[in-house]
Amino acid sequence: MPSIYIETFGCQMNEADSRYIAERAASAGYRIAEAVEDANVVVLNTCTVRESAERRAYGRMNHFKALKTADPGVRLVVTGCLAEQERDAMRRRAPHVDAVFGTRELALLGDRLADWAQESALDVLAERDRRDSMLRFALGGSADGVTDAFSHLRAFVTVQRGCSYYCTFCIVPHVRGRFDHRPQRAIVDEARARIAKGAREIMLVGQTVNAWRDPAGGADFGDLCKTVANEPGLERLTFISPHPKDFTHKALDDLAGIPQLNSRIHLPLQSASDALLRRMNRKYTLSQFDCVVDAIKSKMPGTAITTDIIVGFPGETEDDFEATLSYVRGGVFANAYTFIYSMRQGTPAARWEQVSHEVAHDRFVRLVDAQNEVTRRYHDCKVGRVVRALIAGDSKKDATRLTAKTTDNVTIVAPKPPDWASRNGVQGHPYAPTPWLDIAIESAHVWGCAGAVVARAERFADAGAPVKQPVVDLI
Ligand code: SF4
Asked: Which residue's CA lies nearest to atom 2 of ligand 1?
């Protein structure tokens, strides 16, 4: 059986695309490889939103050259935003890449995988123990989110591709094109199919997800969420990333009426300076953003709001930055993804006078410190409580621990209970049928919380059955 390894950079849109590729590959007869050196086909799903992601993608392509040298039968495929934007340059810079597919060519990529699976050479290669251990050591890395025993529990459903808003820093509309909304029927059918395959949580994904409109009937995002939530068996619903300007009172009322809605909304602010928001072409002012925050808090009490913030955007003055810093210190956000502005050729902001790296870095550190304090306080409130969280898998840092995510998207780490056993098939893990964990929180950190698993449940609404505790050796 041929095998495929998929490595993903960037946003949830790319993660959703990687899962689609994995599913097309599986239906064409591929096994998902957990290590790149075990694969016949290696897919790199790239991102170009930041320069660092672009550099890392080219770095990985160069790394993978060793695979091709050791075994010319291996196919290396690049997809994602960088593939869309740099198709020609990539052929020059990485001539060992076998195929490049843009973000709108995933179906073609699926067809090509099926063709390759037919070729007998792959079957021959699959039987051979063909890569030496030095290669395994040299390549490193891990595939994201498509192989583990629990990834089917949290399903991404793409509702829309592209974006028509043209924020002046953003490459997405240039690379992925303008809005292309999927029909409601296709979205609901996919959600239903995911639930039938064991999904407990559906994440609706779009670059500006709440701008979605049904191309035929005109239903809006609130209507869509209500319809998906009505699917029998759906336990939790979430979405990413909404645009602040597209949250109407009607949409928020619709969301507030959905019992399965997760208690976290990601609301990208980018800057709290009106002057910068204008230069960024964000289409809202700080006070309009604040109105959305207030509406979320009053209609959905207890909902955590998280955000994205850019520092060092061209023209950002100390006063602009102080406005952002002070807003963050006000404690609005449970968490924030903070970035130093990354110049993207082809966007308007790339032509403007840049803030020096030293100044941007200094502001970045101050902003991260401020948000970390707020985030830590948010996590502190969970200490001493038992929280319910959906299992995510092994802790990346410590194989004796597991990780889980609460409905407000906080990472929880806990020692694996004694009845945790090794994997037995992709969905055969003993915790896969009872993936909701009750975890007694013992400590809070900036990254999340740590605790002990005390119970587990099959359904979100079920009471948890106690989990056997480890025997403590006092001698
Ligand atoms: S809303 Fe702005 S930041 Fe978001 S994808 Fe569209 S152009 Fe990019």
From this structure: 167
14 and 119 fall within a common domain: yes
pLDDT for 472 equals: 62
Residues of the chain scoring pLDDT < 50: 120-122, 124-146, 423-426
pLDDT in tens, 113-131: 888 887 644 454 444 434 4
Using the atom order of ligand 1, give the atom closest to the CA of residue 282: 2
CA atoms within 13 A of residue 154's CA, in its CB half-sphere:
27
Same domain, 355 and 415: no
**Ligand 1 pocket check for 166: Cβ under 6 Å:** yes
pTM, two decimals, is: 0.82
Question: Is the CB of 173 inside a 6 Å radius of any atom of ligand 1?
Answer: yes
Task: Compute the distance from residue 307 Cα to the ligand 1 centre, in Å.
Answer: 14
The rounded Å distance from CA 188 to ligand 1 centre is: 25
pLDDT of residue 250: 97
Ligand 1 atom with least separation from CA of 171? 8
Ligand 1 and 207: CB distance under 6 A:
yes
* Per-residue pLDDT reduced to its tens digit, 184-237: 999 999 999 999 999 999 999 999 999 999 999 889 999 999 999 999 999 999
Residue 127 is assigned to a structural domain of this protein: yes
Is 254 found in the same domain as 271? no
Ligand 1 centre distance from Cα of residue 282 (Å): 8
Token pair 């995002």 is at which residue? Answer: 221
